[in-house]
Protein: Nitric oxide reductase NorQ protein
Amino acid sequence: MDADPPDLDCFRLVDEPYYTPVGNEIALFEAAYRAQVPLMLKGPTGCGKTRFVEHMAWRLQRPLITIACHEDMTAADLVGRYLLDAQGTVWRDGPLTQAVRGGAICYLDEIVEARQDTTVVIHPLTDERRVLPLDKRNEVVAAPSGFFLVISYNPGYQSAVKDLKESTKQRFAAIDFTYAAAAREADIVAREAGIDAGLAEKLVRIAAASRNLGHRALEEGASTRTLIRAGKLIARGIGAAEACDMAIVAPLTDDADTRGALRSVVAACL
Amino acid sequence: MDADPPDLDCFRLVDEPYYTPVGNEIALFEAAYRAQVPLMLKGPTGCGKTRFVEHMAWRLQRPLITIACHEDMTAADLVGRYLLDAQGTVWRDGPLTQAVRGGAICYLDEIVEARQDTTVVIHPLTDERRVLPLDKRNEVVAAPSGFFLVISYNPGYQSAVKDLKESTKQRFAAIDFTYAAAAREADIVAREAGIDAGLAEKLVRIAAASRNLGHRALEEGASTRTLIRAGKLIARGIGAAEACDMAIVAPLTDDADTRGALRSVVAACL
Amino acid sequence: MDADPPDLDCFRLVDEPYYTPVGNEIALFEAAYRAQVPLMLKGPTGCGKTRFVEHMAWRLQRPLITIACHEDMTAADLVGRYLLDAQGTVWRDGPLTQAVRGGAICYLDEIVEARQDTTVVIHPLTDERRVLPLDKRNEVVAAPSGFFLVISYNPGYQSAVKDLKESTKQRFAAIDFTYAAAAREADIVAREAGIDAGLAEKLVRIAAASRNLGHRALEEGASTRTLIRAGKLIARGIGAAEACDMAIVAPLTDDADTRGALRSVVAACL
Amino acid sequence: MDADPPDLDCFRLVDEPYYTPVGNEIALFEAAYRAQVPLMLKGPTGCGKTRFVEHMAWRLQRPLITIACHEDMTAADLVGRYLLDAQGTVWRDGPLTQAVRGGAICYLDEIVEARQDTTVVIHPLTDERRVLPLDKRNEVVAAPSGFFLVISYNPGYQSAVKDLKESTKQRFAAIDFTYAAAAREADIVAREAGIDAGLAEKLVRIAAASRNLGHRALEEGASTRTLIRAGKLIARGIGAAEACDMAIVAPLTDDADTRGALRSVVAACL
Amino acid sequence: MDADPPDLDCFRLVDEPYYTPVGNEIALFEAAYRAQVPLMLKGPTGCGKTRFVEHMAWRLQRPLITIACHEDMTAADLVGRYLLDAQGTVWRDGPLTQAVRGGAICYLDEIVEARQDTTVVIHPLTDERRVLPLDKRNEVVAAPSGFFLVISYNPGYQSAVKDLKESTKQRFAAIDFTYAAAAREADIVAREAGIDAGLAEKLVRIAAASRNLGHRALEEGASTRTLIRAGKLIARGIGAAEACDMAIVAPLTDDADTRGALRSVVAACL
Amino acid sequence: MDADPPDLDCFRLVDEPYYTPVGNEIALFEAAYRAQVPLMLKGPTGCGKTRFVEHMAWRLQRPLITIACHEDMTAADLVGRYLLDAQGTVWRDGPLTQAVRGGAICYLDEIVEARQDTTVVIHPLTDERRVLPLDKRNEVVAAPSGFFLVISYNPGYQSAVKDLKESTKQRFAAIDFTYAAAAREADIVAREAGIDAGLAEKLVRIAAASRNLGHRALEEGASTRTLIRAGKLIARGIGAAEACDMAIVAPLTDDADTRGALRSVVAACL
Structure:
């Protein structure tokens, strides 16, 4: 294993991030990491993809560099650029280049939001070459064995306009994520919000109902994150119904009918 | 509580901003602040969201940094950028970074107007990480406990084109705002415009009627702000009808029929 | 009243700009100025809005900074920017910042032409805060009592694409402008073009007829300005019909039928 | 009359540009110049607008600065900008600012091609103020009496997308141009191409026929310029039919039918 | 043969890249290279075009510079640009210019993704001139005999919006690529993934079935690359069905029906 | 004749470029050059326009500066720009300015691809003024008599969106180009590819058939250039059918039916 450059130490996870596996995703991630097959995590908002990557980085003892992709992000934002200094122009590595040099796990969150030049930039890192060409420096950085590329992708979002190119998709092995099963989700909510198991189970029932409302009423159902936040508010003394309204119902929709349906669900479950 | 950097003192509110609560929004805000659950304030133009945030900043003794979002605002406008100086390039924190470092309340007004890179930038601040990565500086700023993020959102505006991403919405608990009840609104108008209670009540009746005209006639009804301004003009000696025309009717619409309807309302209420 | 910085002296009007009021617009402007209620002047091209603002600036003894808005104008064009100097970057106030610091009247002409970031920049100046945040300088400039914001708006132009946001409109009291009544308009034309009253009345009759042709034939009728220019050309020896053709008919339209109609009007009125 | 800055001497016309008037356009231009009424010259391609302006600049003894407008031209291209120099940033006047300072005639050719910020920049120069505000320098340049603004406009081109704003149009008096009458056009062609009168008359007949083909066949008919060029080629020994093909038929259209029609016209006229 | 500049040594392939020819593509490439006829490789994602170019670069002993094209790539990204240094601006060759100067093989991957200025930049290199004009340096670089230009093109992708201009297409001779025949593909998969021949044949049968599903179900079938990766995961201990799901089924589609069909194929073949 | 600046020597053609005239285009070019009438060469891809210009530059003993136009080319790319140097900003002439100063022939290839600011920039060079205004330098460069402007234009390409403005077209005399007659084309192919006359004739017959397939099957038929390249490959030992497939059929189309038709043509002609 390569020695990491010292300045990636701030990207190392000291404490184990809490994560209880759904299936054998830990084994799949480790096999992909060992086989150097880049990985795509597919699933809805707030179902634990980010937490899983953090857990695996801790488990594999790798620094983790996370990059939230957006449509104004350019290749230079990933790779680096020349900046003007008192001594003239100075090259500054971008976060992807840092991850490659330092043998870190690089996590590109919601990659489909990025412009094409971003996705093309990672191509040479995702085939047998495992290199990152820095055209502007005339340098080709070879990835050490510790480097690993993970991207996330929310299939519920994709439209014809914004989707990964076929030649990008086929460069990744994929693991499907979804919300945890009810018992495990209640566990997570109780632990993270600091509430008792009974209340957590009720919140999970609310979320399950919201996820069954269907695409026409809600773009997505309530995520585990919203349950945790409702729990935290209840733990601070807010009434359960009011906390659910504030953390679950109101953020999800402004449509009066859908709000009514959600509030009936909340009333029935609490 | 963290010590604030001295240069945020200019963002502290010295005098209590006048605010009379509608419901238990003060308790909800405080619970969210203590639980570190970011907050979204939903409601129409000029119904008091900004004033409420100012009041809470004063009550919680936090500096308040307000940022009016617009479609040309970039992530760098929030986070900071390198500027060229006599000594070469120098980093300058943007207002969001200042708020994070200084443990301030950061209020992003009308966030939906901003481009996606802005909304994505706040993601790591709104989940359990509570950090702001400054990619261009290779720095990750951890938010002190005093930092709190509040955004506003006007549901009446949103179109399919401009809306928050689902993964952004679910990162916030939400409080609904609407115009104050008639008596409280009259109170506010009388106090802020310096007019007597009777006149204020008449103005509030005009506003209520305008809000009932429906979306087809007016995009939004008269806000509390327009009532205060009509009152101020009357207090400066302008006739009541003329002041209402100038501060309420003329700004709201150029359509002759709707103006006629509004003027009948004004005549009937005064 | 605050002392003005000396460098706004070049924006003070020394001679009284000629203006004869239509109604009580002078009183309305003064009341709005004293009550610190920002003002929107609504009306067609060339009906005297700019001249009215100049007159009021002279009457209120305030410097006047006029900014013609256009779709390429950015917030930085209003607020200011850093420029590179021999000593590194230097901040340079934009015209809006100058107006705020110096307590001037700032007139944003045809504000609807500007991009959204411009209109959002003025929001904190138009509510109770009356401040201009200079994000890039981490400075908040408080407006002295002499500062006053006036914008103009041509309702005939507005389309769905380009209109002010509701939250901007409701920040202004509005005064409607239209062409002056015939007698007063003839007065203005005679005085500004240096022609006798009889000829000025004829020109005004031509304009009135052009304004009645309706939107299908002409986007707008002949403005007072075109009458003054026709008068000036006549005063320089050009024949009346030819001067009207040059200053009124030819600029308004290239459509042969509409030109024919306008020329009949000219022939009938002269 | 103001003294011109020496560096506009290169914009003075030493020799009289050949121009034979069609009507009283010379008197109209002079009256507009003396009355300081900005001028718009309307007419098709190559009918002599540019030559007329050159002639008038020579006649009025004014330097002439010509600017060909295009859709990528910015306000800064007209007004000036800061450039980085060894001593830091230095302001450099644009051609419009030079023209204003130097009291020149400024000719904006095909202004409708420019972006809106260009057209708005000239507004304060075209009303009673006659000033050019240099916002970036905090300077307002007053135009000396010798400054005069002329724009050209081709009505055949205009579409709904690209047209002058009403508030711009009404700032100019307009003179219509069209192709010269046959005898005068033949005169011009003979003189400029160096061919005899008989041949020039034949070329003019060809052009007249092309101009009658109608918009469906040709966007515009053959301009005087194409006739002069056909004449020049004939004077260099090219056969008359071949020269007409090369200078008139081939440039105008690639449509086989229209070419056939034009060639019949050429054959019939020669 | 020209001497290569030393700094292209890092672009030389030391070990023979594994490649088993399908037909006589090696002879065709060599003939085109000797005849200096630029080459276009046509074919679907992951069928071995990049590997073939690497093999030929090794075989012909030429450095290989690969450039992944994307829609934000500018001509300057290929050709070079001036950078600001302590000594002022310094020119830096782009990768295409380096390839020309050094007599390398330059491989423009997915050229159709690039903007038109990129494709136009290569025109003078692809006709008899074989030069690269560096307009900004006023330099014309003549390509040495060792320089060779290869582009790739995926016909399955092209739409009316994004296609090569006719005048670009005709500058290249083309070789069609498709997936290798079953036996050869199994050979490649076994070798690269480190699995036995029987398993490799099964994986190839899965891919063949996926390629027959048709465009409506899948934009493209499983590439050889996905088979290799499934093999690698199996070699790391992941179950065969699970590895196929992760490396083949999940990356290709999110559609439940198509996934079902693919999984039946996987079950039938294993 | 003006003395050329020494640094255009690299743009002089030392050896006569091979060119056999179709008609009297050499005389027409010379007459236009002597009469200073700018020239437009019209015709399809690869029919010899560029070679003709090279031949004429050699014949007229003028340096030749060729510029391939594209939609990202700006006026500054043609005219020049200020660059930052150790001594501050330095002006650098663009290729068009160099051509004007040096009295070169300037060839703008496929001008219709360029943006409007490019085409407008050449206007003052193409009428009687023959000057190039460098607005940013406040300099007007007069073209010496040796300067000549030639543009190319492919009528097959033009759409309503991308076409020259009428006021640009009429500034040029035009010469139509098309593929050479069969005998002459065979001559060219034999000479340039180094093959015997019989084979060249066969290739020409293939091209002729492809040009008759019509627009629906092929956007353009096979150019002379593709024939030469097929010939070169045959001369390097590739079989004739395979060489035609590689140099003619495969580059032209991916449509299976059209490929079939073309291959039948190839089989029939060889």
Notes: The mean pLDDT of chain F is 86. Chains F and B do not touch (no CB pair under 8 Å).
